[in-house]
Amino acid sequence: MSVHRVVALILPPQATFELACAAEVFGVRRVGLPARYEFGVCTERPGAVPTLAGYDMVVSEGLAALEAADTVVIPGWQRRQEAASPTVIDAVRQAHRRGARIVAICSGAFLLARAGLLDHRRATTHWRMAGELAARFPDVRVEPDTLYIDLGDIATSAGTAAGIDLCLHLARADYGAAYAAQIARHMVMPPHREGGQLQYATPAPADRLPQSLAPVLDWATERLHEPLTIDDLAARAKISPRTLARRFADQLGVSPGRWLLQQRVTAAQAFLEETDLPVETIATRVGLSSAANLRRRFHSLVRTTPAAYRRSFGRDEGGARSWPGAGHSVSELARSFPAPVGAGRAEPGPAAAGATGWRPQR
Fold this sequence. Notes:
The protein is of the alpha/beta class. It has two domains: 4-187, Rossmann fold, CATH 3.40.50.880; 214-251 and 254-340, Arc Repressor Mutant, subunit A (Orthogonal Bundle). Helices cover 40% and strands 13% of the residues. The strands form three sheets. It has a seven-stranded mixed beta sheet with strand order 2-1-5-6-10-9-11, sandwiched between helices. It has a two-stranded antiparallel sheet with strand order 3-4. A two-stranded parallel sheet has the order 7-8. The longest helix has 19 residues, at 256-274. The N and C termini lie close together (9 Å).
């Protein structure tokens, strides 16, 4: 399997955390995990580059490094009020034209907008900057309450830690749900956060915070093979179905039924990656009753068939796995990797996705 080359474009003064988001997911070698990515950094003028943290970092590579990148990451752009460097803009445009995936974290979306790569397309950024992005670039369809948006060839994220959410999502898109779950496990991170970013922009008073849904979510994920209903979840939470639906909407940004379906499909992904079980058996074990129902639900959420997903992310002909899942059961992986709901949105780009709307690994 070829190594995916990720290059971060450093723009002074560089935000250190946004850069670290990409470096932690794509650049760290972890025991027991195969090295799927090669990570590097570059800048317009190699040498000492100032950071927002008060120290300089030495970057030896120039913009030519972008010419060999499969993914270009722009980890923030602090001088968004100033005219962008024509050389940098041209290098980013050229990378996009030749097929590289362009990823902007936080304020990096402003550079993509300046380059014209977001015209008439959906994008997000930090909630404090969303209004500014929409005002300065009216052709961009700004979504202020989304943690990240993946269009296939272009991806943007909200502020700071949302960069981790996006990078983990991209690792999942490239190499499968189980591989991304293992990265997140090493980082002691949830592979996917629930809800949108406005929950952080306007926090509720402490005495008005709703009771956490975590206990009932944990209970449900242990019983995906059972015919759970919304009434079952409400009874477990000791609240009415209407109150349960309201709490799901407030805390997760999705309905209870949608969340439950997402968990079943995610568990099916883990089975397809880790086992050779037939689809009919997997459907029963994740509570989707039949192979036909699993195929229909799987395609509606993952935009591909179970068979195609297994070919890309499952065992090879010799029985080896394409990801290191030894020591972790399917149920553990399914529990550790909740599928995306309202927090992040992914849709295929015209060149990257193909007819199914699903992007295979690069």
